[in-house]
Design a protein that fits this description.
Length: 203
């Protein structure tokens, strides 16, 4: 990645077919069912100057998995914005990664699934344990993970101990074979809020 991407543009942005203009971003996200064809995606990538494109699949419709699409994330329609927030990582966070790390996940596996947990109004220690357990409960039993991106978002700056607890818990409870794991943290505007966002690829 060259230095032209190191500026104030968002790392990830959700584009729609009806937009009059495409703001610049590094990761161009789009909802697959919005009638994007190869020509429209080529135009999107050119005008947004996106480094790569990620399609969000919100239903079970069949579609042409075009080479121009770097990765696909399956999610519920109500989770679309949460997927974009997960991909819009900040390298300046407490635990930081960058878009090169995200690109390496999609180079390893093209298809990911998204899950999340949002907990509010609980004491911090209980909040952590409950969120971690509920996230793991959403994964299929005996699932072998090939790639994982986990975002930890809190209304307060996460401590090293709390972040380590979440990461250790996830790694102990997810079966993995030569897995690529990436973790990132962010701050929430919601009071007394704790959220875990994750996308994972099955082996």
């Amino acid at each position: 990645m060259d230095e032209s991407y190191i500026d104030d543009r968002p790392n990830a942005f959700l584009y729609q077919r009806t937009m009059a203009r495409y703001p610049k971003s590094v990761i161009g996200c789009f909802i697959i069912s919005e009638d994007w064809d190869e020509q429209a995606l080529l135009e999107l990538k050119k005008k947004s100057e996106a480094w790569f494109l990620v399609g969000l699949q919100i239903n079970d419709m069949d579609f042409d998995r075009l080479d121009i699409i770097e990765g696909i994330v399956r999610c519920q329609p109500e989770d679309v914005n949460q997927v974009v927030k997960l991909l819009n990582i900040s390298p300046r966070s407490f635990v930081g990664i960058d878009v090169i790390d995200i690109k390496s996940l999609f180079e390893r596996e093209k298809l990911y699934k998204f899950i999340q947990i949002h907990i509010t109004d609980e004491f911090e220690t209980d909040m952590l344990k409950k969120a971690a357990n509920e996230l793991i409960s959403q994964l299929p039993k005996s699932l072998n993970i090939r790639g994982l991106l986990l975002g930890i978002e809190s209304s307060e700056s996460p401590s090293l101990d709390n972040t380590s607890y979440i990461i250790d818990f996830i790694e102990k409870n997810v079966a993995a074979d030569d897995v690529y794991n990436y973790y990132c943290t962010s701050m929430s505007d919601e009071p007394e809020s704790f959220r875990l966002r994750a996308m994972y690829a099955e082996a």
